[in-house]
Design a protein that fits this description.
Low-confidence stretches: none
Strand content: under 5%
InterPro entries: ICMT_MeTrfase, Metal_cation-efflux_comp
Helix content: 55-70%
Subcellular location: Membrane
CATH architecture: Up-down Bundle
CATH class: Mainly Alpha
Radius of gyration: 18 Å
Distance between the termini: 32 Å
Strand order of the largest sheet: 1-2
GO molecular function, one term: protein C-terminal S-isoprenylcysteine carboxyl O-methyltransferase activity
Main location: membrane
Membrane topology: Multi-pass membrane protein
Order of helices and strands: HHHEHHEHHHH
């Protein structure tokens, strides 16, 4: 990971923290056990992201037509950072109690790990762009033998967990807004991999039919 990527990860983590403190207040946030645990999990995941690998390289071949999803992810991500804490503080669309909060914290931790684990497995093959990297090869074992896009599933689960930790109905809706750009990215990624690996990728899709949610999708 280069310095630019590391700075981006740290800046993103700091931005989420700023939004939470602005909306909830530091004392109110830390005094709630579930939210304090959420903050700890977020800090651990942010630090882990610095060491798992990945890149933003266009590699040898890139589907540049899919770059439109990046600003969409950025806008939804910023909204998720700010709206659920503010919703929780103002009780605009909140629901449930501490049980919902702890369930959200558990989902956030699970989704974060599911998001980062494939990055660690793929290493330099994992890019923020839809691209074929030098020496690229298919990954078909481990989590990839269950679902073809485990990192994207992790993103959805962690986003939903973040919203639930703040009991935010608006946050749940924002997490759902990630589905259309994720589906567009999956389509572009699978088309690129199919064109690169041909029959090998077709065989992988036949063995692992679930794109995003095992048993459902």
């Amino acid at each position: 990971m280069n310095v630019g990527q590391a700075l981006f990860i740290l800046a993103s983590g700091a931005l989420y923290g700023i939004f939470v403190i602005w909306a909830r207040g530091l004392d109110a946030f830390l005094s709630n056990p579930a939210l304090a645990c959420l903050g700890l999990v977020y800090a651990v995941l942010t630090l882990a992201a610095l060491f798992v690998g990945g890149n933003l390289s266009a590699g040898e071949r890139e589907d540049r037509g899919n770059r439109w999803v990046l600003p969409v992810f950025a806008v939804v991500g910023l909204a998720l950072a700010a709206v659920p804490p503010l919703d929780d503080a103002r009780e605009i669309s909140t629901f449930g109690g501490d049980g919902v909060r702890w369930f959200g914290v558990a989902l956030f931790a699970l989704g974060g790990a599911l998001r980062l684990w494939p990055v660690a497995v793929l290493g330099h093959r994992f890019s923020g762009l839809v691209a074929i990297q030098p020496g690229h090869r298919l990954q078909t074992t481990g989590l990839y033998s269950v679902v073809r896009h485990p990192s994207y599933l992790g993103l959805l689960v962690s986003s939903l967990g973040w919203a639930l930790a703040f009991r935010s109905g608006i946050g749940v809706a924002l997490a759902a807004c990630l589905i259309p750009p994720l589906l567009a990215r999956i389509k572009a990624e699978e088309n690129l991999l199919s064109s690169q690996f041909g029959a090998d990728y077709d065989a992988f899709r036949a063995r692992t039919p679930w794109r995003l949610i095992p048993g459902v999708w």
